[in-house]
Amino acid sequence: MATAVLSSKGQITLPKEVRRKLGVETGDRVEFVETEEGMFALIAATRDIRELKGAIGKPARAVNVEDMNRAITRRGAGR
């Protein structure tokens, strides 16, 4: 099991094995996601948003801004 020590400034150094398995390097970001009270998952946040291009298919028909605003208004009114 990999462990780390919390510094007086609240910083930790990720063990080499953890950095390797996460695929993170100097300057990369990581996220701490609470999975349950007192338990956190450490997730590499190194992906560029542009990598998501094409992950969702094109809509069946084009939607204009006015239609989007009406849908947002309807959705908000229903709450």
Question: How would you characterize this protein structure?
Answer:
The protein is of the alpha+beta class. It has one domain (16-77). The chain is built from two helices and two strands; from the N terminus they run H-E-E-H. The chain has helices at 16-22, 65-77; strands spanning 30-36, 39-44. Strands 1-2 form a two-stranded antiparallel sheet. The longest helix has 13 residues, at 65-77. The termini are far apart.
Q: Helical percent range?
A: 25-40%
The fraction of residues in strands falls at 15-25%
Averaged pLDDT, please?
A: 89
| Radius of gyration (Å) | 21 Å
Order the strands across the largest sheet as they lie in space: 1-2
Number of strands: 2
**Oligomer description:** single chain
Q: Quickly count the helices.
A: 2
How would a textbook summarize the main sheet? Answer: 2 strands, antiparallel
Provide a concise account of the structure shown:
It is built from two helices and two strands; from the N terminus they run αββα. It is of the alpha+beta class.
Task: Detail the topology: elements first, then pairings.
Blueprint: H1 16-22, E1 30-36, E2 39-44, H2 65-77
Antiparallel strand pairs: 1-2
Overview features:
alpha+beta, two-stranded antiparallel sheet, single chain, 79 residues
